[in-house]
């Protein structure tokens, strides 16, 4: 009998057509359901690659303690993958993160340290750095770790190319760490340099979990603007409205970053006469039930 581990089910997520929120002859809008990963988000891919590659390079070994700053999904993915791969995980994150995320990380066995909300992700990053130097923890640093985009070059990009039979013309992703959009861009551009890569980022003042406009000093090292053809801004209202529409009209229960991604993809799809637009659905909506989005 051939058996599989939970890791074998990371990736190969469904690609489904949006048939209710968008209808236009000659244009197809496809949504990649990353909530179907074992940990419930696209971050499972990067978490597995970052930890497993660090073990392969002997940067870490089983029993070591890792530390990472996260706003949520990466922390859940790391908590899951860490225990499966035999290392310990310490997560630092802003205290205004939803309780579902905190409890899920702790359920997987991670230690979660909440940092002041007014310091944002930058404060969580600073605290992770303190623990690295004070406690000697190994910091994965998803923002500067090139195993992050590598995961998407190796898996997400090839899946999109395969499942669209090479017909994808536009790829849209929310930008957080930028690992997804960077890695997918690398792969798809190798296959067809005419594929348009579009990143969604929040308008000034918008608070959309999972999508960020970084301060210059905190800009991820993995980010390369040359790999993105167009950056479109999305408002908090647009992201929120689309998140609700996805659940009610398409049966896709997701978070606000997915709403931002699809709201942006809809703008792209409406602006072209022919093509196949693929957008990332970043995670599942169950980790946002305590927030006000589904009130």
Automatic annotation (TrEMBL):
Swiss-Prot/TrEMBL GO biological process terms: cysteine biosynthetic process from serine
Domain of life: Bacteria
PROSITE patterns assigned: CYS_SYNTHASE
UniProt keywords, alphabetically: Amino-acid biosynthesis, Cysteine biosynthesis, Pyridoxal phosphate, Transferase
Gene3D superfamilies from the UniProt entry: 3.40.50.1100
Claim: Repeat is one of the keywords in the record: no
EC number: 2.5.1.47
Leader sequence segment: none
Protein's pathway: Amino-acid biosynthesis; L-cysteine biosynthesis; L-cysteine from L-serine: step 2/2
Gene Ontology molecular function: cysteine synthase activity
Keyword Hydrolase listed: no
Domain called Tryptophan synthase beta chain-like PALP: residue spans: 8-283
Top EC group: transferase
Record field: catalytic activity: O-acetyl-L-serine + hydrogen sulfide = L-cysteine + acetate
Residues the record lists as binding pyridoxal 5'-phosphate: 73, 176-180, 257
Modified residues (N6-(pyridoxal phosphate)lysine): 43
Names of required cofactors: pyridoxal 5'-phosphate
Classification via NCBIfam families: cysKM (TIGR01136), cysM (TIGR01138), PRK11761.1 (NF008735)
Protein family per UniProt: Belongs to the cysteine synthase/cystathionine beta-synthase family.
Protein name per the record: Cysteine synthase
Biological classification of the source: Bacteria, Pseudomonadati, Bacteroidota, Flavobacteriia, Flavobacteriales
